[in-house]
Write a structure and sequence with these properties.
The chain is an alpha+beta fold. The protein contains 18 helices and 16 strands. The strands form three sheets. Strands 5-4-3-6-2-1-7-8 form an eight-stranded mixed sheet. Strands 9, 10, 11, 12, 13 and 14 form a six-stranded mixed sheet that branches. A two-stranded antiparallel sheet has the order 15-16. Helix 2 crosses helix 7, helix 15 crosses helix 16 and helix 16 runs antiparallel to helix 18.
Length: 489
């Protein structure tokens, strides 16, 4: 038996690995992972779509010396089975190269450690010329002449990753500038979300600042924890091979409880799909979100439920985490436990949804619309026990009352269930038209006066009015009428 060492043909292999499936934003996030893993506290993404377009990721992390840089530029520089540092966001030792080369034909890395600079380049055109794994190295003088090498002058250590010859942005040079800007915009939003737990709390030991051409990126929190209507339920812990996984359910606020800023964020970041489902984090970095992984059927009432799952980086194989760190699978050993957690959370989500984020009224309160459920079928019918309806009924003769009853039956029969359901499912913000104080006051006063002339009876009917959802929203009207009735005698 003999061994035959077959070295992959460099030009073909490098070209083929460019099509592994990175998008622009996932590739950029992969490079930022490296910066975070190397203890960077500031990351600058700089770019230009002019004559010589480029994207550069600059950090103030640990940096690398010449030997470490060469190792980092080697494909498969680390083993996915190796034990990683607790905060390491890496996976296969391929991210720097494959993420970068998926977007460009020339990758240059300049790094600084203990004041000394080193640099190296993978250039696909040069690899095609040499037909070998030809990594370009630079002398100290040559490094000083490289694009953006001065960016590290203010740092004791750090790294610059530069993408050039960006042939994957657009097939047409005419559309390049527009598509480049679109990809930068998508990446901006993507980074805001997937690194939000690093970006949002300056007092956290994991806090980082990210800038796009000197504009600071703000965190996008999918759980809206700053909103008092967000309900964080009890955290639970499940285990895989003795490794703890934290599971935290949230009930999201109904749209009527969102601030104008939160509504803007939802609309502006709609493409990120910040909907119901599991939000899976690996070392606080968001990996996958907005899906139930077929653990439950996807229904609109569940859209208020989001469940955060926090994973360490020691059980990647159980979750089948891919190279891009953008997909995962739920291990079969914990599916049943997750189903139970989801079921409990969804149950609470449905209650919030049915009452549109409001507290449930007490049992002695009355609604203008009664919700009637009969044999699994649902109807909304006008409440004919309201004092205002009684007054109207007493003022009509039989023929007029039959016309009124027919009109109400028509309204009930034509209730737009499907349209209302669709609008709520689309997160449409409804307008509570409300009534002016004077309108509510005149309606209440007319109703009371037509029901009774005696003071005690008027106060009794006034109490009944105060328990109707329409008047319940106008306590000042009830107080004013009560004061007038008390002062009448």
């Amino acid at each position: 038996m003999e061994d035959l060492i077959l070295t992959p043909y460099a030009p073909n292999l490098v070209e083929s690995t460019r099509s592994i499936g990175y998008s622009f934003e996932t590739a950029l996030a992969d490079i930022i992972d490296n910066s975070v893993s190397n203890n960077a506290t500031r990351i600058d993404v700089k770019f230009s779509n002019n004559k010589d377009p480029f994207v550069a990721i600059i950090d103030n992390g640990n940096g690398m010396n010449a030997t470490e840089l060469q190792q980092a530029m080697q494909y498969g520089s680390s083993n996915s089975l190796d034990i990683r540092g607790h905060d390491d966001l890496g996976r296969f030792g391929l991210g720097l190269k494959m993420a970068s080369m998926s977007q460009c034909r020339k990758l240059t890395v300049i790094s600084k450690k203990k004041g000394e600079l080193s640099a190296a380049t993978w250039d696909l055109e040069y690899i095609h010329q040499t037909k070998k794994w030809s990594l370009i190295l630079y002398s100290e003088k040559e490094i000083s002449e490289l694009k953006l090498s001065s960016e590290l002058s203010d740092y004791h250590s750090g790294t610059v990753v530069i993408w050039e010859m960006m042939d994957r942005i657009s097939e047409s040079s005419k559309d390049f500038e527009r598509e480049f800007d679109d990809k930068i915009d998508s990446a901006d939003k993507h980074i805001s979300l997937v690194f939000h737990r690093f970006l949002e709390n300056p007092s956290s030991k994991n806090y980082i600042e990210v800038y796009f051409n000197n504009r600071k990126i703000e965190a996008v929190d999918p759980f809206m924890l700053s909103n008092h209507a967000t309900q964080q339920l009890e955290e639970e812990t499940i285990f895989i091979d003795g490794t703890p996984i934290k599971v935290t359910p949230f009930i999201m606020p109904f749209t009527s409880k969102l601030s104008s800023k939160e509504m803007y964020v939802l609309n502006e970041y709609r493409e990120l799909n910040l909907k119901q489902g599991l939000y899976i984090y690996r070392n606080h970095r968001l990996i996958v979100w907005g899906k139930w992984f077929r653990l439950v059927s996807d229904g609109e009432l569940k859209r208020l439920a989001k469940i955060r799952i926090d994973l360490p980086n020691t059980i990647d194989t159980h979750w089948k985490l891919d190279i891009k760190k953008s997909s995962a699978q739920i291990p079969s050993t914990i599916k049943e436990q997750l189903k139970q957690i989801i079921s409990r959370t969804v149950g609470k989500s449905e209650k919030v949804y049915k009452y549109r984020g409001r507290a449930i009224l007490k049992e002695d309160h009355h609604h203008v619309w009664n919700r009637i459920e009969n044999r699994g079928k649902l109807q909304y019918l006008i409440n004919r026990q309201l004092p205002t309806f009684e007054v109207l009924q007493e003022s009509l003769d039989d023929n007029q009352f039959n016309l009124l009853e027919g009109f109400i039956n028509t309204l009930e029969h034509a209730f737009p269930y499907s349209a209302v359901y669709y609008d709520l499912a689309q997160d449409k913000q409804y307008v509570d038209n409300g009534m002016e104080f004077n309108q509510v006051y005149e309606l209440a006063k007319t109703t009371i006066n037509n029901l009774s002339v005696a003071k005690e009876e008027k106060l009794h009917y006034l109490d009944k009015l105060s328990n109707i959802d329409l008047f319940h929203k106008y306590p000042e009207v009830i107080r004013q009428l009560k004061k007038e009735i008390d002062e009448c005698e």
